[in-house]
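User: I'm curious whether this sequence folds into something compact or stays loose and floppy. Could you predict its structure so I can see for myself?
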Amino acid sequence: MSDDQTTPPPRPRGEGQGEGAPDWLDDLTSADLPEPLQEWAEIVGVRGAVRLAESVGGEYRYIPKVDKLLIRMRDTRIRREFTGGNLRALARKYKPSETWIREILEAQADDRQASLFPAADPAPILPH
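Assistant: Here's the prediction. I'll summarize afterward.
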């Protein structure tokens, strides 16, 4: 390689492939990327996979499953939308049974009750 064909310096961490991304990046497919990034490229696109590699490449990151987050969000919405007489409508809208809607609402009531009366220190164990 001659002096006029030097490799550009690496981009600072966190600087994404936005407006200044090279034009040829649009010609890449997921198969052109290293194997670990190929699956990500199928999910978030080649540009997204390149941005991920720039931002957190070389690091181990845990990505939690989305189901628990979605259930928590659903339950919060159910609690917020509950008016006292709309159990059946909430069950139709969010798909759990009316019994499960009651469980969600009772769990909230239990949480509130527990926060009103914090647990006392357990009684000391006395020797016999």
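Summary: The radius of gyration is 26 Å. Residues 30 and 38 are 5 Å apart (CA to CA).
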